[in-house]
Design goal:
heterotrimer, A: alpha+beta, Fumarate Reductase Iron-sulfur Protein, Chain B, domain 2, 2 domains, two-stranded antiparallel ribbon, 8 helices, 13% strand, B: alpha+beta, Flavocytochrome C3, Chain A, domain 1, 5-stranded parallel β-sheet, 17 helices, globular
Chain lengths: 245, 640, 230
């Protein structure tokens, strides 16, 4: 199948970028990134610079890939990262526009590559349980209700890709931040630090320049792990509890 | 060739007491002195992140490096199935001894006994540590931890978090790392690639990195370097490894004097989604845990092209259950992979390409219900569906083996120190614990054992026993090594040939898969060596790398990595040629039993082959570490 | 002192702001419901019914002023935070998406309502000023109820809504209120962290119904009054 691509090209963080049209021959079994590989081989052969994009595991778990495809972060398939989107969802002659995540807190490095270090700093502000190596009690010392553990897991599956920010009309990082808070607040291990955790992480999220949450729910729709915005409700409850005590 | 006997510095005493003996007698570093030492940790997977966090907690200053945009993206994140530990929570007869024994046996008696025993001892602490970090392991209704069984074991000792165990463990370690970043004890440097090792006065004292955003070279000084850079499976081009996984850091250390051990031991994972075309960039693994409930089969006749559902039981060959009645579908990975290859070679493969076998869940769904299967493997089934467009609840999965893990790596002693003093190697990057074949759910265990619980003691011992004269970035050794690194990069850009990095990588991968892959023979290995040499010389004459050195340039990064793979591939073939026996993941067609099983030669090859670089134009030198088994009796592995 | 600054920090944080928006929103919704119920008395043919209701309210004297100031504060807080969230949003993604057909608005619980909160909000704020000037401080004639002096608010409303333009204006604004509440009711519950995973869908649907009911209730008033007089 022949595809008409329009891909964001930008040489550096401070340079102007633009959408550049390309044509590429794809095959339905290819993944989206493999289609981009084909484009890049084509460009290199033609003496042009290939399109830079982040990718690594290509199986939907590392969270590296980040393309806004025809206006939707990670493309049209629900619960799927860009790398797991296959070309069988497109047809001959389709026009496909590819852009990077857009947020001031995620500055473009080059082409489709953005800097997501803000997420690391949010985790560093409290997204952990402070347990030094070697000091842990026996793993079965504290039984945890199966349902609670499962729920915590649902929030813990966040891959830190940033699609939530990309999808949010306000470029808010609430779903990312809330997922970690929700995961740890549901487990007894996370209990001791729950107050400082939520206060500090929320503060850091704001410092990084992400926008406010307006409950649009675009984040949960874009999330490749389908993490629900109930996480954000949990974060707010945790926040109120922490602020009032 | 010299034949130095390598000393692994294994502590004295009976096997069970060696580690305790080490802990009781190793030298310690005073807490106030720890902060005077900077440790460079390269790679932030399970081994790197856990080591960086633990060392920082102890008080060392840590600089941690990764090539991705965040420490959390390291490829450990993709491990699916689980992590072994000898907790024996189910009283099914497990013990430290059994975990140790299964691991040594699974590795086909080519691992170092003392290291494996230590690993089995530490396994339990890992689970405690991870649970305390908030890792949401699977649980029973009573609230206690749940286990499942994995290949090569007859007990249920695998702890898991759905099909995302690696992700949850890595996030635990990553969070511990970020905690120490917050505490100011770790400086995290993402998007940095280690290009070389700086050795000053015989000790590893620093590294040269390239800032992958700006292209600038950076010099980093430390008192020890921890290499936690993973495996080199991408030498095969197609593997289950992440695209950024590479051998470069380890390879440059090899060239600076670290020995490379058992490079030919590669693990071919039996349950991957088969290749569908040339454009394919990587292979996707389906966790081995699927073999708990899935049954592997092919039609009895190669001419049988009916859709799977229409093939009656009588015309199916459940070949693993037939050949290995006691382990059935749960035989170790190497055995499962080789058997898949042999039925495909017989012309009984399935699917469009004929290069696949069925993994069928119909029986399990009938027995347990779709809901149970969905709860156990839902995310794996979804992934399969996304990639292939087929629904495995209705039609059997098609699977085929793919390169997954490399047991070989830089040689380390009991302290995890390489032959370059001060250069420690952890996790998949070292060679030590899995012998010639790794059992499922043991990689996570080893990475975290090395990082959380071993290195903190052995590094302390090294620091306490050595003096560290002041070295800074302007030292001439740093200037010289940086110059080597930058001229290499410039050389790659200057070729301006016709073929892309991807094309070279694909060609190398084909040679490796065909001749240094699942089964090997003398002739094939010899021709592989020649073909690789030829390809390498073409690479340096006809490569085209676009773009500039001083900007984000992924093609340039990959070019450097493929250049190293082109050298490593040859060493793997040399090692495979030298090892005239079959063991674990190394199967030499000349050496097999009448039934087609791997035939070891313990008299001649019960050693670790550690290769030393001797210059770019001369053959590497082989050094041997004899493997001595005090407690385990070497037998022909049998899973019948 | 320290705890005071902690509370201030908490209230002005991203989560705090959203919670304040939610709390003020809830109170305003209650007010709106009360206001509607009171106003339905306008439909009674006896003008005295509504006027005596108005008189009762006025008789609260100081208390009425306090309530009015409190309401004004609620509206102010709600509006200021809403506008500041909008301003921050503009800063958080300065350039916006460049692609053709970018439909970041098409996903999740987004709707035209959720995307236009700032517009409907600002229009409502302007409307409030008009509305208060028109009826709270408007030219209502004096009248007597049971021998006591009162304002003929009923008459003021009747004469206002005899004008088709005012009727259209009010109908338009009431539709906007419905729109604002369509997202607002769902959003305030989510903001206050009241959501349980299972409720989410139901509440999102309920918000549509409540928003619709309030809007229809309000816009019926001017329409019916106009039709009766026409």
């Amino acid at each position: 199948m022949k595809l008409h691509l329009k891909v964001w090209r930008q040489n550096g963080p401070h340079e102007e970028g633009k959408l550049v049209p390309y044509q590429v021959e794809a095959n339905p079994h290819m993944s989206f990134l493999e289609m981009m590989d084909v484009l890049n081989e084509q460009l290199i052969k033609a003496g042009e610079d290939p399109v830079e994009f982040d990718h690594d595991c290509r199986e939907g778990i590392c969270g590296s890939c980040n393309m806004v495809i025809n206006g939707v972060p990670h493309g049209p398939l629900k619960g799927t990262a860009t790398c797991q989107l296959h070309m069988r969802h497109y047809k001959d002659g389709d026009t496909v526009v590819v852009e990077p995540w857009r947020a001031e807190a995620f500055p473009v490095i080059r082409d489709l590559v953005v800097d997501r270090a803000a997420f690391d700093r949010i985790i560093a502000a409290g997204g952990y349980v402070s347990v030094d190596t070697g000091s842990a009690p026996d793993a079965n010392a504290i039984p945890i209700e199966k349902n609670k553990a499962e729920m915590a897991f649902d929030y813990a599956t966040c891959i830190g890709c940033g699609a939530c920010v990309a999808a949010c009309p306000n470029a808010s990082a609430s779903l990312f931040t809330a997922s970690k808070i929700a995961h740890l607040s549901l487990l007894p291990q996370g209990n001791a630090e729950r107050k400082t955790r939520v206060l500090r992480m929320v503060e850091q999220m704001e410092k990084e320049g992400f926008g406010d949450c307006s409950n649009h729910g675009a984040c949960e729709a874009a999330c490749p792990k389908e993490i629900p915005i109930d996480a954000i409700a949990i974060m707010r409850r945790e926040y109120v509890k922490a602020a009032l005590s | 060739m010299s034949d130095t006997i390598l000393n692994a510095h294994i502590p004295d005493g009976p096997l069970e007491g060696k580690w305790q003996n080490y802990l009781d007698t190793c030298k310690l570093v005073n807490p106030n002195n720890k902060r005077k030492h900077t440790i460079l940790v390269v790679g932030t997977g399970l081994a790197g992140a856990s080591a960086a966090a633990s060392l920082a907690e102890l008080g060392y200053n840590v600089k941690a490096f990764c090539i991705q945009d965040s420490a959390r993206r390291a490829h450990s994140i993709a491990a699916q199935g689980g992590i072994n530990a000898a907790k024996n929570y189910h009283d099914d007869g497990d013990s430290v001894w059994r975990l140790f024994y299964d691991t040594v046996k699974g590795g086909d008696y080519r691992a170092r006994e003392a290291n494996v025993y230590r690993l089995a001892q530490i396994s339990n602490n890992i689970i405690d540590q991870c649970v305390a970090q908030g890792v949401p392991f699977a649980r029973e209704y009573g609230g206690l931890l749940s286990n499942r069984s994995f290949g090569g074991a007859q007990v249920s000792r695998t702890f898991y978090a759905r099909g995302q165990t690696g992700q949850q463990l890595l996030l635990g370690a990553y969070q511990a790392l970020e905690k120490m970043v917050d505490a100011g004890k770790v400086e995290m440097l993402p998007r940095q690639e280690m290009l070389d090792l700086v050795v000053v006065d015989g000790k590893a004292r620093g590294i040269i990195t390239r800032n992958l955003v700006t292209g600038e070279y950076e010099r980093h000084v430390g008192d020890a370097v921890l290499l936690c850079t993973g495996g080199y499976g991408n030498v095969f081009y197609l593997s289950t490894n992440a695209k950024n996984s590479n051998v470069t850091a380890a390879w440059r250390c090899y060239k600076r004097g670290a020995f490379f051990a058992n490079p030919c031991y590669t693990q071919i994972h039996p349950t991957c989604i088969p290749v569908s075309g040339d454009y394919q960039s990587k292979l996707t693994l389906m966790s081995e845990s699927l073999r708990n409930d899935g049954r592997v089969w092919v039609p009895k006749s190669g001419d049988d092209k009916r859709p799977p559902a229409q093939i009656p039981e009588a015309d199916r060959d459940y070949y693993l259950e037939r050949k290995y009645p006691s382990f059935g579908n749960l035989v170790p990975r190497d055995v499962a992979s080789r058997n898949a290859k042999s039925v495909v070679d017989e012309g009984r493969g399935v699917g469009e390409t004929g290069v696949a076998v069925y993994l069928d869940f119909a029986d399990a769904i009938n027995r347990l219900g779709k809901d149970t299967i969905e709860a156990r493997y839902g995310n794996l089934f979804d992934m399969y569906m996304r990639i292939t467009g087929e629904n495995p609840y209705e039609v059997p999965m098609r699977i085929y083996p793919a390169v997954h893990y490399t047991m070989g790596g830089l040689w380390v002693d009991y302290n995890l120190m390489s032959t370059v003093p001060g250069l420690f190697v952890l996790g998949e990057a070292n060679f030590s614990d899995h012998g010639a074949n790794r059992l499922g759910a043991s990689a996570l265990m080893q990475g975290l054992s090395d990082g959380y619980f071993v290195i903190s003691h052995t590094l302390g011992n090294y620091i306490a026993n050595n003096s560290f004269p002041e070295v800074n970035e302007s030292n001439e050794a740093f200037a010289a090594v940086e110059n080597d690194a930058s001229s290499r990069i410039n050389k790659l850009l200057a070729i301006k040939g016709e073929k892309t990095v991807l094309e070279f990588h694909r060609e190398l991968g084909k040679i490796m898969w065909d001749k240094v892959g699942m089964s090997r023979n003398k002739e094939g290995l010899q021709s592989a060596i020649q073909e690789i040499q030829k390809l390498r010389s073409e690479f340096w004459q006809n490569l085209r790398v676009p773009g500039e050195p001083n900007s984000y340039n992924k093609n340039l990064e990959f070019a450097g990595r493929v250049a190293d793979f082109l050298e490593l591939g040859e060493l793997m073939a040399i090692d495979a040629l030298k090892r005239e026996e079959s063991c674990g993941g190394h199967f030499r067609e000349e050496y097999q039993t009448e039934e087609g099983e791997a035939l070891r030669n313990d008299d001649e090859f019960s050693y670790v082959a550690a290769w030393a670089h001797s210059g770019d134009d001369s053959s590497p030198n082989l050094h041997k570490e004899p493997l001595e088994f005090d407690r385990v009796k070497l037998t022909q592995r049998s899973y019948k | 002192m320290e705890s005071q600054s902690r509370v201030t920090t908490a209230l002005t944080s991203q989560v705090g702001r959203k919670i304040l928006t939610g709390v003020t929103g809830v109170l305003l919704v209650f007010f709106v419901i009360g206001h509607l119920l009171g106003n339905l008395q306008l439909l009674d043919p006896d003008p005295n019914l509504f006027n005596s209701y108005g008189k009762k309210l006025h008789d609260f004297g100081l208390l009425l002023y306090i309530v009015e100031v409190a309401l004004a504060l609620l509206i102010l807080i709600h509006a200021v935070i809403g506008i500041s969230i909008f301003a921050k949003k503009l800063k958080a993604r300065k350039g916006g998406y460049k692609g053709v057909g970018v439909k970041e608005g098409g996903m999740g619980k987004q709707s035209l309502a959720s995307r236009t909160m700032i517009i409907t909000g600002v229009v409502l704020l302007i409307f409030l000023v008009v509305h208060i000037l028109q009826f709270r401080f408007g030219p209502a004639a004096d009248m007597m109820i049971d021998g006591e002096k009162a304002l003929d608010l009923h008459g003021l409303v009747m004469s206002t809504f005899a004008n088709i333009w005012w009727v259209l204006f009010y109908v338009g604004v009431m539709l906007l209120i419905g729109f604002h509440l369509r997202h607002g009711i769902w959003s305030m519950l989510q903001s206050l962290g009241m959501m349980k995973p299972r409720w989410s869908k139901g509440i999102h649907g309920a918000a549509l119904v409540i928003g619709l009911l309030l809007a229809v209730g309000f816009l019926l008033l001017p329409v019916i009054i106009y039709l009766r007089q026409a």
